[in-house]
Design goal:
The chain starts with a strand and ends with a strand. It folds into 3 domains: 2-62, SH3 type barrels, CATH 2.30.30.30; 65-125, OB fold (Dihydrolipoamide Acetyltransferase, E2P), CATH 2.40.50.140; 131-185, Nucleic acid-binding proteins (OB fold (Dihydrolipoamide Acetyltransferase, E2P)). By secondary structure, the chain is mainly β. The chain is flat, with a radius of gyration of 21 Å. The chain has strands spanning 2-3, 12-15, 18-28, 36-43, 49-55, 59-62, 65-76, 79-84, 90-93, 109-115, 120-125, 129-137, 150-155, 160-164, 172-176, 181-185. It has no helices and 16 strands.
């Protein structure tokens, strides 16, 4: 059990048969009336963000969660298979738990968030940026960069992203996994 004074971003709570992570919180002391804590909570099961207000000093149930390093192995009809980086234990995970499955390639290092009591995977987070090879894109036209025109490019994972016209097939680019946008060209 913890009270509202223990709140911090990233703390995971058990409420209403769901696991909720604190995204944002604000302690409010109005001039009249008791103090309260206004929060934004993200459901780890559904991904929805909800607002909730707690009275100051109220007790809440804290869930034990652990972040563990895993490496992506392969995908089949049972889901995505990962291997623990230290114990070499393998675990299949469904696609809806993975934050950006489009940008996952074999050998990719990820962090998987587990509920420590039930050993169930809650979320799988890729690094903020990944470097991927472009397998197909239309050839760019030289000198056609007066505007911020974009074209589609297919990556080695099969994902399609918008890239600037000067990017060509066979080049590596850095992709932001949180938004799915092109970030920069990777120089080797």
């Amino acid at each position: 059990m913890a009270s509202t004074s223990d709140f911090r971003n990233g703390l995971t709570l058990e409420m209403n048969d769901d696991l909720l992570t604190i995204v944002e919180f604000q302690h409010v002391k109005p001039g009249k009336g008791p103090a309260f804590v206004r929060t934004k909570l993200k459901s780890l099961r559904t991904g929805k963000v909800i607002s909730h207000t707690f009275s100051a000093g109220v007790k809440v149930d804290v869930a034990r969660v652990e972040r563990r390093p895993y490496q992506f192995l392969y995908k089949d009809d049972m889901g995505y298979h990962f291997m623990h980086s230290e114990t070499f234990e393998q675990v299949p995970i469904p696609e809806n738990v993975i934050s950006a499955a489009d940008f996952l390639k074999e050998g990719q290092e990820v962090e998987i968030l587990f509920h420590a009591d039930t050993e169930t995977p809650l979320s799988c987070d890729l690094p903020a940026y990944v470097d991927l090879l472009i397998t197909y894109t239309e050839p760019g036209e030289k000198g056609n960069t007066a505007t911020n025109a974009l074209k589609e490019a297919t990556l080695e994972t099969g994902a399609i992203v918008k890239v600037p016209l000067f990017i060509n097939e066979g080049e590596k680019i850095r992709v932001d996994t949180r938004t799915g946008d092109y970030s920069e060209r990777v120089k080797e």
